[in-house]
């Protein structure tokens, strides 16, 4: 019998009947430590050290009868280079918040799982998702589970885990392109009359051409920035 003991922060991934954190498993002599941990629902993307009888072991280690394994969560902050992300189709609101903060964030609302993995690997991005099965796909090089149901809670979790460098107001929230200052006269034809009359400072996305200004929604966005950078 191999005894897996999961830290409190990982127990949410276990089936309800096993959330005491201690899971006995009969070893088959061939399964790796990483396979055993994922077989009970915990993605390796969320795991830090795995200590077998007090000694740190890699996921490829094969535990045997009598082994006790202590499984710890990934250390925070988890620094990644380059600091850029890809979000699955269910995290659009989080994608807009990360872009607002200047974090390089790829997102498209029509990517399937296979396409997400290919893109994340090709562009060296961390795939952020709440799909535990997706995180357990062996072909995925870097991923992370996003905690929280509300976008604000999800944003707080991502910032706490990865501590990415922030550059608010520098990215397009629609396409992730970089923003550049633009003279009002160059985009006046794109603006409604009330906007032309009320605002004079503008930026434009270098990728999609979308215009930005500090409008009526600015206070709400500023509050997101303030909480993230404060």
Can you describe this structure?
There is one protein chain. The protein is of the alpha/beta class and 230 residues long. Helices cover 28% and strands 21% of the residues. The longest helix has 12 residues, at 151-162.
- Please outline the major beta sheet: 5 strands, mixed
Assign an overall shape: elongated
**Total number of helices:** 8
**Beta fraction:** 15-25%
Average the pLDDT over all residues and give the rounded result: 95
Output the strand order for the largest sheet: 2-1-5-3-4
Q: Radius of gyration over alpha carbons? A: 22 Å
- Separation, N- and C-terminal Cα atoms: 49 Å
Q: Could you spell the SSE succession in H and E letters?
A: EEHEEEEHEHEHEHEHHEEH
List low-confidence stretches: none
According to DSSP, the number of beta strands is 12
Overall structural class, as computed from helix and strand content, comes to: alpha/beta
Helix content: 25-40%
Short summary:
The protein is α/β, with parallel strands linked by helices.
Q: In terms of topology, how is this protein built?
A:
Elements: E1 2-6, E2 22-25, H1 33-39, E3 47-52, E4 55-56, E5 68-73, E6 84-87, H2 92-100, E7 104-107, H3 113-122, E8 126-129, H4 132-135, E9 143-145, H5 151-162, E10 179-182, H6 184-187, H7 193-198, E11 202-205, E12 211-212, H8 218-229
Parallel strand pairs: 1-5, 6-7, 6-8, 8-9
Antiparallel strand pairs: 1-2, 3-4, 3-5, 10-11, 11-12
Task: Provide key terms for this protein.
alpha/beta; four-stranded parallel sheet; 230 residues; elongated
């Amino acid at each position: 019998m191999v005894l897996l003991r999961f830290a409190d922060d990982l127990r949410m991934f276990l089936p309800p009947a096993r959330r005491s954190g201690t899971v006995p498993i009969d070893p088959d002599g061939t399964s790796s430590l990483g396979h055993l941990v994922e077989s009970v629902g915990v993605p390796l993307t969320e795991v830090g050290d795995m200590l077998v009888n007090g000694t740190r072991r890699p996921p490829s280690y094969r535990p045997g009868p009598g082994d006790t394994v202590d499984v710890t969560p990934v250390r925070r902050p988890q620094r990644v280079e380059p600091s850029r992300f890809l979000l699955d189709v269910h995290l659009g609101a989080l994608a807009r918040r990360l872009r607002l903060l200047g974090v390089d964030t790829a997102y498209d609302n029509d990517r399937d799982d296979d396409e997400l993995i290919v893109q994340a690997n090709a562009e060296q991005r961390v795939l952020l998702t709440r799909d535990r099965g997706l995180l357990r796909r062996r072909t995925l090089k870097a991923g992370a589970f996003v905690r929280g149901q509300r976008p604000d809670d999800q944003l707080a979790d991502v910032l706490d885990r990865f501590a990415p460098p922030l550059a608010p107001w520098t990215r397009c929230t629609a396409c992730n392109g970089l923003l550049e200052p633009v003279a009002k006269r160059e985009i006046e034809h794109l603006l409604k009359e009330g906007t032309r009359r009320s605002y004079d400072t503008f930026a434009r996305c270098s990728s999609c051409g979308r215009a930005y200004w500090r409008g009526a929604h600015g206070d709400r966005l500023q509050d997101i920035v303030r909480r993230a950078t404060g």
